[in-house]
Amino acid sequence: MKKILFICHGNICRSPMAEFVFKDMVKKAGRQQEFLIDSAATSTEEIGNPMHHGTRTKLRQVGIPFTDHRARQITIDDYNDWDLLICMDRNNMRNMQRILGEDTDNKMHSLLEYAGLSRDIADPWYTGNFDETYNDVVLGCTALLKTV
2-147: CATH homologous superfamily? Predict the structure, then answer.
């Protein structure tokens, strides 16, 4: 089983969006038995809070099911427990490395790198543009699913 953890700053916008988009893709591909998928934050700011209403609204709009997600922060154990730790932007990558240490097993990646892109996924907390974030998440998750 491949264990994938999506990571963003607060775990209320981008990483839970990626979590549920990827779960939906995996299910539609008939591969849900192959994966364990979750998400987490690099900060403590939103711990225990639900997904942002904009993320929930966008997922409903496109027909992607989701559960009662609550934000949590990554821990040192996550490096050992997960096969891939996939972040949404460079700041989160730096914070993830600060928390987890050196990536000796090459587990830490950017979601859009799977689509051959080196840019960040914009944070809709600041932009308010959940459509743009969703499009980038779908692009990255589609490419990721082809590689795992």
Answer: Response regulator (3.40.50.2300)
